[in-house]
Amino acid sequence: MLLEIQGLESHYGRVKALKGVDVAVKSGELVALVGANGAGKTTMLRALSGVQSISAGSIRFDGHDITRLPAHKRVHLGIAQVPEGRQVFGPMSVEDNLLMGTYRRRGAKPGDDMERMYDTFPILKTKRKQAAGLLSGGQQQMLAMARALMSNPRLLLLDEPSMGLAPLLVGEIFNAVERLKAQGMTILLVEQNAFQALGIADRGYVMETGDITMADDAQVLLGDERVKAAYLGL
Amino acid sequence: MTSMLPSALRLPPALHRHRGLIILAALIAVLPLALRNDYHYDVVINAGLNAIVVVGLNLLIGYAGQISLGHAAFFGLGAYVSAILTTTYGWPALGAMATGIVVVGIVAYVIARPILRLKGHYLAMATLGIGVIISIVLNTEAQVTGGPDGMSAAPFTVLGYTFASEQSWYWLVGGALLLTVWLSTNLIDSPIGRALRALHGAEIGARVVGIDTTRYKVLIFVISAMFASFAGSLFAHHTPTVTPSILGFIKSVEFVVMAVFGGMASVMGSVVGAFIMTLLPNVLAAFEDFEPIILGGIMMGTMIFMPKGLVPTIAKKLRRKEAP
């Protein structure tokens, strides 16, 4: 297992947002975590990247216990998050945003990686001198993904990449995620858009009010009556 | 800011980054032509000292997005360390100044960790509280600080030369200001500066690319407090008496106002803001009782019509004209 989460709990003040979550991700897998708004999906990703405090449970990454490790050290170990709402550095150029992604790689020559990102997301190349804040939502999402990939991660955490995007762009983003998986990237994808997320995932978890209620192969979940009724609107 | 100069005056790239510094140096060089008496010099020297504090404070406010209502306390602490060490203990002025900067740096570091966990209004309140505490300590420890009556520092002597005339102080403070601007400009263009700009707009984004945001916030808080202490030490040697009034809450607010008025995240804006806000009350003194009203009007007008502050707004206008 590359990532193993056991009994994870987290609080916002006195409200328990995660009530003992168990999730595991194998190397090379694309795992989708789906659920309704407020189920705790984003909280879990934030706890994983270290920007949300954890009150109980453990996170193991590649054999290391990282439960208490600060966020910047997790990046060093190879966990990169594409945060909800993209969080690009608005006043900086696209290129500088990408360079910021290599912040933890002292002495690295980011030129090749940058070219690779421009190959994966050609639109970023044409906009590379523009301020990131001026890009459209879809372009910002691609930039946030490219920035995360610049750190050469071993695990990519994607938080609601389709949020607020037009359907056409959502398709484009999911295509990019599939391409990354094909290149061997391990991905944990959090999505409200359960249908599309499970469509490209190997396995899936369904989350409800801070608990994992179902865990199975993505195709099985897609066919499950309860999942269909609750999340797919079928 | 691509350029504040007409295109005919465009500088080579190596100098381009420091064009503000070059303009400032030129202004400092020619300004004495307009200064006719010691009073003029005194006002400009105080404006320069304020500018040093504000440039440092603006690193914190404009680049790191944190607010401090306690910078007058760091300024005052630096002033008192210089005054006490040079008079009571007969230390050399530069040694006292360096000690002040280190002491203030340590104080800032110790309080920064718990304080910078706070956000927005709470951070402002906490820094305000620090200012009040330091002010009370200096007021009550009368046997060391002279209490409310204050104390004087020894003359500022370096390598046998004593800065006594207002003219000599003018060049000293001018040089100190240039040094501050140069250091700040370099800091902003360093990886530290990039990390600060990143965490200002998107703190989560900054943390997930691996920036230890707490560390950088603490670092910039300490650096900006040290700049304030530097200016405070110079002030102590220049002013007849150092009193606790120099580090009051109002003084802290004035520093913030200068930074915001001149332009956030703008080094030159800080300098311009400090000069205008120091000079204005002196110019407006002719209006006597109406002075606060006119000052307040100017402030409100700036905030309404130039919310980004004076220098960034003007720079943007110039840029538009240049490249239509």
Characterization of this structure:
The complex is a heterodimer of chains A (234) and B (324). Chain A is of the alpha/beta class and 234 residues long. Chain A has 10 helices and 10 strands. Chain A has helices at residues 41-49, 71-77, 94-100, 111-120, 122-126, 137-149, 167-182, 194-200, 218-223, 225-232; strands at 3-12, 15-25, 30-35, 56-61, 64-65, 79-82, 155-159, 186-191, 203-208, 211-217. In chain A, the strands form 2 sheets. Chain A has a 6-stranded mixed sheet with strand order 6-7-8-3-9-10, sandwiched between helices. Chain A has a 4-stranded antiparallel sheet with strand order 2-1-4-5, with helices on one face. The model of chain A has no long low-confidence stretch (mean pLDDT 90). The longest helix of chain B has 26 residues, at 38-63. Chain B has a two-stranded antiparallel ribbon. In chain B, helix 3 (38-63) packs antiparallel against helix 11 and helix 8 (166-188) packs antiparallel against helix 11 (213-238). The two termini of chain B are 16 Å apart. With 324 residues, chain B is mainly alpha-helical. Chain B is 72% helix and 2% strand. The chains are: A alpha/beta (234), B mainly alpha (324). At the A-B interface, helix 2, strand 6 and helix 6 of A face helix 9 and helix 10 of B.
Strand element count of chain B: 2
User: Distance between termini of chain B?
Assistant: 16 Å
> What oligomeric state best describes the polypeptide chains here?
heterodimer
Query: What is the helix content of chain B?
Result: over 70%
Average pLDDT across residues of chain A? 90
- What does the main sheet of chain B amount to? 2 strands, antiparallel
Tell me about the largest β-sheet of chain A. 6 strands, mixed
Radius of gyration of chain A: 17 Å
Shape of chain B: globular
Mean pLDDT of chain B: 87
Q: In which order are the strands of the major sheet of chain A placed?
A: 6-7-8-3-9-10
Low-confidence segments of chain B, ≥5 residues, pLDDT <50? 1-8
Widest sheet, order of strands of chain B: 1-2
Find the count of extended strands of chain A (DSSP E, 2+ residues).
10
Q: Give the termini distance of chain A in whole angstroms.
A: 34 Å
N-to-C SSE string of chain B, H for helix and E for strand: HHHHHHHEEHHHHHHHH
